[in-house]
Amino acid sequence: MMIRWGIASTGKMAEGFVRDFAHVPDATITAVGSRRPESAGDFAARHGIATAHGSYRALVEDPDVDVIYVATPHPQHHAIARAAIEAGKAVLVEKAFTATLAGAEDLVGLARERGVFCMEAMWTRFQPIVEHARELIAAGEIGDVRMAQADLGAFRAYDAEDRLFAPHLGGGATLDLGVYVVSIAEHFLGRPDRVHTAGTLFPNGADASVSILLGYDNGRSASLLASLEGETPGRAVVAGTKGSIELVPRFHHPDTLILRRNGQPAETIVRAPVGRGYCHEAIEVNRCLSLGLTESPVMPLQDTLDVQWTMEQVLGQLGITHTEDPTPI
C-alpha cells in the first residue's frame, strides 16, 4: 500500500523531514501547504512535490493526501492537526505537540473519538540506539530504574523577532529543547508526581534556561536542564540498581550508548540511524497505518499528554502562559 503524505510547513523542520523521506518505503509526498503560495511553490519545486497549496486548509482537503506532517511553529499545530483529523487524515505532529496541555487534550480526544491515527513526532524515541536502550532496560540489564539525568543546551543570540524567542510563537527553552529532556526522562520513569522548576527569562518574558526536578512518590527522580543561553553536552543517563545507560551526546538523535553494569567494564554499543534519523518516525506511522492502528505503541498519545502536563507545570512555575494560535487555517 502506497501511503501519500502532505507537508504542512516549508521551514527548517520540514526541510529535514523531506530530505530523509527517500528512506521511507511504500510512501510518497504528494503535496505541501503553506500560508504563502510562493513559499509552497518554491518548496515543491525544490523537492519534486507535485502539488503546492497556498493554504493549510487546501492541504487538509486534498483527496490525494493520507497523512499530514505538521511542522509549523508550536501554537499553529493545534488548528492544523484538528482540521486534518476532522477530515479523516492521519497526523504526525512535531514536538512540542501543542502550545498548551488543553490543546493536546483536545487533539487526543478528537483523534480517539474519530478513530484517526495521531502521533507526536518525537524522533528521539525511534532512533535505533534508543530502541536498543529500551530492550536492555526491559531485559533487566541495569536493574530497577531509579533516576534519570538529561541536559540539552544551545546558544542562540537573543532576537525578540525570531520564532525561538517569540512568546506568541511558543518560543523559549521549554517547548523547543525542554520537550526533549522531559520526554526522555518520562519515557523511562513515567509521569512524575511533582515538578519543581527554576529558570531565567529573556527580556520579552520567554524562558531562557530551565532546571527541572521531577519527583515520584516511590523515591525515583529526574534532574533535567534545557537552555537557549549556552551550549551543554547534551547527555542523557538512566540509572538503576544494577548499573546505568548513557545516551552519548547529543542524546536527542544519538547513535551510541554506554552500558555500565555494576563492577564490570563499560560497554559501548553503536546503532546508527538511517539517513539523518527523521525517517524512522515516518516508517512507524506507515507501519501503524498498515496494521490499522490509531496510536503508536512506541509513542502513545498518553505519553504525549504526560509530557505536555509536565511542561505546563514548568512554564506555570516560571509565570509563563502559552496560547494556541486562533488564526483560521
From TrEMBL:
It comes from the Bacteria. Keywords: Oxidoreductase. Gene3D superfamilies: Dihydrodipicolinate Reductase, domain 2, NAD(P)-binding Rossmann-like Domain. InterPro entries: Gfo/Idh/MocA-like_OxRdtase_N, Gfo/Idh/MocA_domain, GFO_IDH_MocA-like_dom, NAD(P)-bd_dom_sf. Residues 3-120 form the Gfo/Idh/MocA-like oxidoreductase N-terminal domain. The keyword Oxidoreductase applies. One of its GO terms (molecular function) is nucleotide binding. Residues 131-246 form the GFO/IDH/MocA-like oxidoreductase domain. Belongs to the Gfo/Idh/MocA family. This is Gfo/Idh/MocA family oxidoreductase. It comes from Nocardioides cavernaquae. The lineage of its organism: Bacteria, Bacillati, Actinomycetota, Actinomycetes, Propionibacteriales.
